[in-house]
Design goal:
By secondary structure, the chain is mainly alpha-helical. Helix content is 84%, strand content 0%.
Length: 182
């Protein structure tokens, strides 16, 4: 249970959550209004993240040069850097690759959720896991059915939905914090 001081600090932080909500909701709506731009931005952000991470991994590998796994650490860093550079300098091909990866991920998650649902069958609520699995499989199939054309919008749409979902979450947290012990 939170102390009175902690509750007071939480209550005063509601405005931050409200700001996060507004930013997320605006970003989500903008992403849904222009999914191609959002997909391109997401691909470029992923590229820069991979490039930065790869460069750091290469630096770290040379700091442990005498170690038996040096070559593997270096190779991992180089491959990560190459993936990042590839996404940065060829974002359209990167969009296709990332969309294919998302489709395969949805298919794999769908199968795992279905198996999990059937293993939970005597437990109440197992049907929700089943429905989630069917939804994941359906999304994967829909993406693959429109592949590669889906690549221009799928990542942006997913980003938009995630941002709106976060915005709603932040909004409800802000409202809850605002009304804390009033």
């Amino acid at each position: 249970m939170a102390t009175a001081t902690q509750e007071a600090k939480l209550r005063t932080s509601w405005i931050w959550m409200a700001v996060f909500a507004v930013i997320s909701l605006i970003g989500g709506v903008l992403a849904l209004l222009n999914p191609f731009a959002a997909t391109l931005a997401a691909t470029l952000m992923a590229g820069w993240a991979f490039a930065f991470l790869g460069a750091l991994q290469i630096i770290q590998a040379f700091q442990v040069q005498g170690w038996g796994g040096f070559i593997w650490a270096l190779l991992f860093g180089i491959l990560t850097l190459v993936v990042g550079i590839s996404l940065i300098f060829n974002p359209l091909a990167g969009m296709v690759s990332l969309t294919l990866l998302v489709a395969v991920l949805f298919l794999a998650l769908g199968v795992v959720k279905l198996m999990y649902a059937f293993s939970l069958r005597p437990v109440a609520g197992w049907v929700w896991v089943l429905l989630s699995g069917v939804l994941s499989l359906g999304l994967g199939i829909l993406i693959l059915a429109d592949f590669p054309w889906a690549a221009v919008s799928v990542l942006g749409i997913l980003l938009g939905v995630e941002l709106i979902s976060n915005g709603v979450l932040f909004l409800f947290v802000a409202l809850g914090l605002r009304s804390l012990n009033q």
